[in-house]
Design goal:
The complex is a heterodimer.
Chain A lengths: L6 H14 L17 H9 L12 H13 L8 H10 L7 E5 L7 E2 L6 E5 L4 E5 L5 E3 L8 E4 L5 H4 L1 E2 L4 H33 L1 E2 L2 E2 L4 H27 L2 H26 L10 H11 L5 H19 L14
Parallel strand pairs in A: 1-3
Antiparallel strand pairs in A: 2-6, 3-4, 4-7, 5-6, 8-9
Chain B lengths: L6 H17 L4 H5 L6 H16 L18 H13 L7 H15 L2 H13 L4 E4 L15 E5 L2 E12 L6 E7 L8 E7 L5 E6 L8 E12 L3 E2 L5 H12 L5 H19 L5 H29 L7 H23 L9 H10 L9 H12 L8
Parallel strand pairs in B: 1-4
Antiparallel strand pairs in B: 2-3, 3-7, 4-5, 5-8, 6-7
The chains are: A alpha+beta, B alpha+beta.
C-alpha cells in the first residue's frame, strides 16, 4: 500500500501542469457551454500525456491521475477515452475516441465528429468504426462537452469491425475513466465555489462562514476525495467490481454536489460569465453514462456478491474486497 | 501509487485472523453483542488481551523498549480493522494500546510509565477517558471540573458524563481545569477510580451494556505526581494523542462485514434478486470503500512521517457516511435482524449510532474540513 505519488507520477503531473498553465483560466470573453482548444489537444497528444498507460511502470493509475488533473481545467479535452480506453483497443486508432453504449442509442456522445473513432459497447461484443459525416448529427447541447448524436444506420454491422476484447474489460476501463474524470471535475468545481463563497459577503460576512454552506461544501469535498480514491484504486486493480463501485460512487457524488454548488453561487452561478458551469455541465453529461448510478450499483452488486458467493468465498474472510 | 498490500502486511493480517479463529469462542458473536463496555466482554478482554500480548499482537506498533515490535502504522490499522470487525474482543483495552500508552510514553514521568505501561502491555488494564461534561461536549474547552492545588495534592471537584467504560475502569485519563481564568488552563490527571470521592453511575443507553456513565468527583484528593505533564498542557498532550489516534475506530471494517452478512441473509431468502436491494447494497459498499481508502491515505502520510494533516477529518466524515449507509440498509431490508436473527447485525446497529458522535461530532469534523481542507473563512465567534 503506497498512496502517494511516485517520483515519476509527480514529475508527469508537474510537467502537465506547466503545459496546461495557459489553459488554467477561462478566456474573459468566453460565453459558451463547452470550452475547447485544439492547441491544448495537440499539445497533450504531442507531449505523450495520453500514452502514459502504455508504460508498464506507469499504467492506468498514472493515466487516471492525468485524466483527473486535466478535468480540472475549464477546457473540455478528449482525454479519458484516449488515455484509458484506447490502450485496450489499439494505439493506432485516430482520436478523438468516442464511447457509445449500444444499450443507450439515444444518448449524445462526447466529442463525436466526422473522423473520430467510435467504440460501441454491446452487451456481448465491442465494435469500432471511424465516424463519417453521415454518422453524425450535430447537437446543440446544454452540456459542457462538444457532443453529437450518432445517426442509426442499418449497415453499421458491416461498416464497423469487431475488436478482440471482452465487453466487460471495456466497460470496466470506461467506468474507471468516468470516475477519474468526475473526480477532477468535482475538485475544480468545488474550488470555484469555495473561492466564490470566501469572497461574496451577505449579512456582513462571507457566505463561506455560514455553517449551512460550510457543512455542505465540506461534504462535497469528502465525496470528491472518495471519488478520487475509488477511481485510482480501480485503475490499479483493474477489478470490474472496483470499477463499478467507483463509477457508482462518482455519479452519485456528482448528482448531489452539482446541485449544491449552484445553490452556493446563487444567481452568479446561472450566468455564463462565471465558469462554474464549465465543470458542472460536464458533470451533468457524465451522470447518464453507462446507464447512470443505479445501473452501476446493480452491476456492482453482481460483481461483488454474486461472484464471491458462486465460488463459496466469504468476501470478509477471503480478504478480497473487504481487505482491499 | 500502489493499492496492493506488501507481503509483510498481508502476513500480519493473516496472523491476526488465524489468532482470532483460534481464540474466539464459538458463541463469541453472542458475547460481543453485549458491547465492549459490558461486564461480560470486559472480563473476556482480560483473558483475550493476555493471549494477544503473548502472541505479540497486543502492542505490535509500540516501540521495542516498551515491549512492542516497532511495526508501522499500516500494522496498527490492520490490527484495528480486524479487531473491530470481529466485535472488538479487546473490549475497552483498544484505547490503551492505541493512544493512552503512546501518550504516557511521550509525556509520562518515569514513575507513571513504570506504573501504567506494563499492565497495558500485558493486556490487563482498563482505562476510561474523563472528557465530556454536562456543559462541555463538542465545546470541550469549556469544561468546569476543577483541580485545586493544595500543597502536594490536588483536590478535584466536578462531574464528567457519557464516560465510556467508567464502571469497570481502574484508571481515568481525566481532563480538569487547573486555571479558572484561562479557557485553555486545563491539565490531565491519571486518577485511580478507587480514590475516595469518586462515584460512578451507569447511564442506560442504546449502544450496549455498561458503555456510558456519569462520574462525580467530590473532593477527590490525588497527589501532584498524578498530573500528566505540566499544568495547562492538556491541549498539547491531547493533540499528540489525537495525532496518534487520528482516525479513531475503523468502523468501516465492521460496517462492510455487517453489509456482507446482510447480503448473505437476504440472498438465502431470495430478496437479493430485487434490484432496489442490490443498488442500495452497492451504494453502501461504495461508501465503505471510500471510508477505507480515505483512512488509508492518512496512514500513508503517517508512515511517511508527515505531520498530522487536516484530511483525517475528511476520513472521519467518510466513515460516518459508510456506517450510516450500512445501518440504514439493514433497517430498510432486514429489520428482523435487529430483533432476534443476527447478533452481528444487532451489535453493528447498536454501535453505528455512535459513529458521528464519539471522539468529535461529525458536524465538528465538517467544520474542520471546511476550515483546514477547503480553507474557508472561519465562522465569527
Amino acid at each position: 500500500m503506497e498512496l502517494s505519488l511516485s517520483a515519476d507520477q509527480a514529475a508527469i503531473l508537474s510537467a502537465l501542469e506547466s503545459l496546461a498553465k495557459p489553459y488554467a483560466a477561462t478566456p474573459t470573453n468566453f460565453r459558451g457551454f463547452a470550452l475547447i482548444s485544439e492547441a491544448l489537444d495537440r499539445a497533450l497528444a504531442e507531449g505523450g500525456f495520453l500514452d502514459v498507460a502504455y508504460e508498464s511502470d506507469l499504467g492506468p493509475v498514472t493515466a487516471a491521475l492525468v485524466v483527473a488533473q486535466l478535468a480540472r481545467l475549464p477546457y473540455a479535452a478528449e482525454v479519458s477515452a484516449s488515455a484509458l480506453v484506447r490502450p485496450l483497443l489499439g494505439a493506432d486508432l485516430p482520436r478523438p475516441i468516442c464511447l457509445a453504449d449500444a444499450e443507450a442509442p439515444h444518448l449524445p456522445i462526447r466529442f463525436l465528429a466526422p473522423g473520430a473513432t467510435v467504440v460501441v459497447l454491446h452487451r456481448d461484443r465491442v465494435r469500432v468504426f471511424t465516424a463519417s459525416v453521415k454518422d453524425v448529427r450535430k447537437a446543440e447541447t446544454l452540456f459542457g462537452y462538444p457532443m453529437a448524436m450518432l445517426v442509426p444506420h442499418a449497415d453499421r454491422e458491416t461498416t464497423s469491425r469487431e475488436v478482440d476484447v471482452s465487453p466487460l474489460a471495456v466497460r470496466t476501463i470506461w467506468r474507471i475513466a468516468l470516475a477519474a474524470e468526475i473526480a477532477g471535475l468535482l475538485g475544480a468545481a468545488i474550488d470555484a465555489a469555495v473561492a466564490y463563497v470566501s469572497d461574496r459577503k451577505q449579512f456582513g460576512r462571507p457566505l463561506g462562514t455560514f455553517q449551512a454552506v460550510r457543512h455542505r461544501l465540506a461534504e462535497a469535498s469528502v465525496r470528491a476525495a472518495g471519488t478520487r480514491w475509488l477511481a485510482l484504486k480501480a485503475a490499479d486493480s483493474g477489478d470490474p467490481s472496483d470499477a463499478a463501485l467507483a463509477a457508482q460512487y462518482a455519479q452519485e457524488a456528482a448528482t448531489g454536489v452539482v446541485y449544491d454548488l449552484h445553490q452556493f453561487l446563487g444567481a452568479m452561478g446561472i450566468t455564463l460569465e462565471h465558469p462554474l458551469h464549465l465543470w458542472t455541465y460536464r458533470l451533468k453529461a457524465l451522470l447518464s453514462e453507462l446507464g447512470g448510478r443505479s445501473a452501476q450499483a446493480v452491476d456492482a452488486a453482481s460483481l461483488i456478491w454474486d461472484d464471491a458467493e458462486a465460488i463459496g468465498v466469504d468476501p470478509h474472510r477471503a480478504g478480497g474486497h473487504h481487505g482491499v | 501509487m500502489k493499492f496492493e498490500w506488501a507481503d509483510e502486511h498481508r502476513a500480519f493480517r493473516a496472523a491476526i485472523r488465524a489468532f482470532l479463529a483460534k481464540n474466539l469462542p464459538p458463541d463469541w458473536e453472542k458475547l460481543a453483542h453485549h458491547g465492549p463496555g459490558s461486564a461480560a466482554q470486559t472480563e473476556f478482554s482480560r483473558e483475550f488481551c493476555g493471549k494477544l500480548a503473548q502472541a505479540g499482537l497486543l502492542t505490535p506498533h509500540w516501540p521495542v523498549a516498551w515491549g512492542g515490535q516497532g511495526r508501522d502504522a499500516w500494522c496498527q490499522i490492520i490490527l484495528a480493522e480486524e479487531m473491530w470487525s470481529a466485535g472488538e474482543p479487546r473490549g475497552a483495552q483498544y484505547m490503551n494500546v492505541n493512544w493512552i500508552g503512546p501518550t504516557l510514553m511521550q509525556y509520562g514521568s518515569d514513575a507513571q510509565k513504570q506504573q501504567y505501561l506494563p499492565p497495558i502491555a500485558r493486556g490487563d488494564a482498563i482505562w476510561c477517558q474523563g472528557f465530556s461534561e454536562p456543559d462541555a461536549g463538542s465545546d470541550l474547552a469549556s469544561l468546569r471540573t476543577r483541580a485545586a492545588r493544595d500543597g502536594d495534592i490536588y483536590r478535584i471537584d466536578g462531574q464528567k458524563i457519557w464516560t465510556s467504560y467508567a464502571g469497570l475502569a481502574e484508571t481515568c485519563f481525566l481532563l480538569v481545569r487547573t486555571d479558572p481564568d484561562r479557557k485553555r488552563g486545563i491539565s490531565i490527571f491519571l486518577v485511580p477510580m478507587k480514590t475516595p470521592g469518586i462515584t460512578v453511575r451507569p447511564i442506560p443507553s442504546l449502544i450496549g451494556e455498561g458503555d456510558i456513565h456519569e462520574v462525580f468527583f467530590d473532593a477527590v484528593e490525588v497527589p501532584a505526581e498524578a498530573r500528566l505533564g505540566e499544568e495547562g498542557s492538556a491541549w498539547d498532550i491531547i493533540s499528540f494523542s489525537l495525532n496518534n489516534e487520528r482516525l479513531g475506530i475503523p468502523r468501516y471494517a465492521l460496517a462492510r462485514r455487517a453489509l456482507d452478512r446482510a447480503v448473505s441473509i437476504l440472498r438465502t431468502r431470495g430478496d437479493f434478486d430485487r434490484e432496489s436491494v442490490r443498488a442500495q447494497a452497492s451504494r453502501a459498499a461504495g461508501l465503505c470503500q471510500a471510508a477505507r481508502l480515505s483512512s488509508y491515505s492518512i496512514v500513508d502520510q503517517r508512515v511517511r512521517g508527515m505531520a498530522g494533516t487536516s484530511s483525517s477529518s475528511s476520513a472521519r466524515v467518510a466513515t460516518v457516511m459508510a456506517e450510516r449507509a450500512v445501518a440504514e440498509f439493514v433497517v430498510e431490508f432486514l429489520p428482523d435482524a435487529l430483533c432476534e436473527a443476527d447478533p452481528l447485525l444487532k451489535a453493528h446497529h447498536q454501535r453505528a449510532i455512535v459513529a458521528g458522535i464519539a471522539s468529535g461530532a461529525a458536524e465538528i469534523q465538517l467544520n474542520l474540513v471546511a476550515s483546514d481542507v477547503l480553507k474557508l473563512p472561519r465562522e465569527p465567534r
